[in-house]
Amino acid sequence: MIFNQKGQIKESLFEYPSDNFKKFKESALKCNRCTLRKTCTQVVMGEGSLKHKIMVIGEGPGSTEDKKGRPFVGRAGNLLNKILQSVNIKREEIYITNVVKCRPPDNRNPNQNEMDACSPILKTEIKYINPKVIVPLGSIALKYFLGDRKKITEDRGKWFNIGELYFLPTFHPAYLLRNKRMKKPVYKDFIKIKKTINRINQLYDI
Ligand code: URA
To answer: Which residues touch 89 (CB under 8 Å, ≥6 apart)?
Structure first.
């Protein structure tokens, strides 16, 4: 768990600069705190809006992301873009990132040690963005934020909260590439997300 009961980030032993995003990013790109860095091409940092208070979080870079150094730019990313476009969400009005920033070999799931080693980067991204809503994409991200008992098949499309921070888990776009029937429920989830973005924008005058 990276949040306390109020939905605030728990401090890490390792801290990044929290007053200069550029410096934080430069420093994070040099991370080699776990063995994933030995097999990946580069660290893939999140990207998008630091002001819109909404984060969409996948599990870890795939092979295209590993080559290009950007999150969600492969097949799953293209599908994510299409879903976003279909509900009028621009990539620039959300912040997109992953639980781990280095590609796991053969796209296996990241393990707990790797997720723990990477957590100072994700926590720092969260500190900068101060999100009101986090959208975990898929089971790994869902369990990472809300605990091992959560099941993506049962819990997608439901709102959860830790204190003032809200979560709306949905299926990972890579899963949708294999299970096309599930696109419709995910589209409905993103309609909820679009409405929430509008509400947040009004509330915070964004
Ligand atoms: N899958 C993810 O979880 N993240 C990416 O960036 C790409 C594919």
So the answer is: 190, 193, 194, 197
What was the pLDDT predicted at 13? 82
- Strand 95-98 vs strand 54-58: parallel, antiparallel, or unpaired? parallel
Q: What is the pTM of this model?
A: 0.97
CB 104 near ligand 1, within 6 Å = no
Taking each helix axis as running N to C, give the angle between helix 21-28 and helix 112-129, from 0 to 180 degrees, rounded to the nearest 10: 170
Number of domains present in the structure of the chain: 1
What does the pLDDT look like over 147-192, one tens digit per residue?
999 999 999 999 999 999 999 999 999 999 999 999 999 999 999 9
Full residue range of the structural domain in which residue 58 is found: 21-204
* Residue 114 belongs to a domain: yes
Q: Where are the beta strands (DSSP E) in the chain?
A: 47-48, 54-58, 95-98, 133-136, 160-162, 165-167
Distance CA(119)–CA(196), nearest Å, equals 26
**How far is ligand 1, taken at its centre, from the CA of residue 205, in Å?**
31
> Does a structural domain hold residue 141?
yes
Quote the ligand 1 centre to 156 CA distance (angstroms): 18
Beta bridge partners of 160: 167
Using one digit for the tens of pLDDT, what is the confidence trace for 48-62?
Answer: 999 999 999 999 999
**Distance in angstroms (rounded) separating the CA atoms of residues 200 and 197:** 5
- Cα 76 to Cα 65, 72, 138, 178, 187, distances in angstroms: 10, 6, 12, 10, 15
